[in-house]
Amino acid sequence: SVLDWYKLSGENRGDYESYPNQNSNGVYYYYLSKNLFANCTALNTVDFGCIKVVIPNTFAGCNIENINLGGVTYLGEGNFASHNLNTFSISSYNTNYKIEDNILKTYDGKQWLLTTGKNYTGATVLKNDTVEVIGSQLFDGLPIESYDLPKVYSIGYRAFANTNLKKAEIKANIKVYNEEYMETIEYSMSYGAEAFADCKKLEEYSIDADVTKLPKGIFKNCELLTESAKILETKIIPADIFYGTGITEFTFGEKVEVINESAMPNGTTDITIYASNPPVVTETEEAEYISNVTLVVPSSCVDLYSDHSFWGRAKEVVANSDYEGH
Q1: Residue 225 three-state SS
Q2: Which of 31, 215, 246, 278 has the CB geometry, 3.0–4.6 Å to 53, for a possible disulfide?
Q3: 182 Cβ contact partners less than 8 Å away, ≥ 6 residues apart
């Protein structure tokens, strides 16, 4: 690709059927097709002109550094990455988005979408009681040290990856008081893959006992983490969640059904499983650590685990004297 700059005008309309181009008043809302500029790797600057809707992945695979959003009313996921951006701007008349504290936000401040990662001038200690959604890759590679965001219920893909965080919490739910309805609403927390990966200063983490779902690689390569991990209510343990950490001891609850072997680091020495049926293991060639593991299982299930193609390769399979199993 040699395309390095593009200005979008009213003559550039896409044909993506999911986004109607005319409202009930007959006013046209110009939009762009999915993957229209996908992998135009030389594309550096985009001026949206009168374009109103940018659907997800219109600019997938691009490395755009400068954007003028103008009067855009909808900006889909997968278009821009904060760590690539040098500058962004927006029309002063835009009532859907705003730039505040070096962050592109929805006008109500509830969603944070982008920042200029190459020229970040915002806070490194984040405190805000309005934001609810942290967009994908928002702070990836930036010097964020901590955050206090009590209303956030969604943290996107690599949102805090490769930052200077020292502590991270994985919650199952949060309760937020809604002033409009004057009631407390409970939200299920959502975390994108690798949300806290590659945080080289992360020393402390917690996972609520009632967490039922974990994303792939959430703490991958956070090498200072050493505290034993207990995951009690999750059925599927995805790939790489603790890969590259210093954690050696793991406990999985009764409900666990599938464990990706790369979920645990090569230095793993102790695994306790409360499930009566040996969990299915998605094996790769990196499973060599199992031969160094002491595996503790329900006392009635020792033979099942010992005869298993993966778990039977443990250094030893030990009966849990405090738990017989079902």
Answers
A1: coil
A2: 31
A3: none
Please state the three-class secondary structure of 121-177 as a single string. Answer: CCCCEEECCCCCEECCCCCCCCCCCEEECCCCCEECCCCCCCCCCCEEEECCEEEEE
Contact 258, 277 (CB under 8 A): no
Q: How far apart are CA 79 and CA 296, in angstroms?
A: 46
Q: 22 pLDDT exceeds 90?
A: no
Q: Are 73 and 51 in contact (CB under 8 A)?
A: no
Phi, psi for 188 (deg, rounded to 5): -80, 130
Ramachandran sector of residue 182 (left: φ over 0; alpha: ψ -120 to 50; beta: rest): left
Whether 299 contacts 321, CB under 8 Å? yes
Burial class (CB in 10 A: 0-12, 13-18, 19+), 167: middle
List pLDDT tens digits, range 229-280.
Answer: 999 999 999 999 999 999 999 999 999 999 998 999 999 999 999 999 999 9
Rounded Cα–Cα distance for residues 195 and 120 (Å) = 19
Q: Which residue is associated with the tokens 């979408």?
A: 113
The residue-averaged pLDDT of 2-14 equals 47
CA distances from 276 to 176, 249, 272, 299 (A): 38, 20, 12, 9
Structure-token match 């009764």, residue found: 254
pTM value?
Answer: 0.88
Q: Is the pLDDT of residue 29 over 50?
A: no
Q: For residue 9, give Cα distances in angstroms to 22, 35, 62, 80.
A: 16, 18, 20, 20
Residue range 28-50: mean pLDDT, rounded: 78
Closest listed residue to residue 19, CA positions, set 64, 80, 69, 75? 75
Q: What is the pLDDT of residue 286?
A: 59
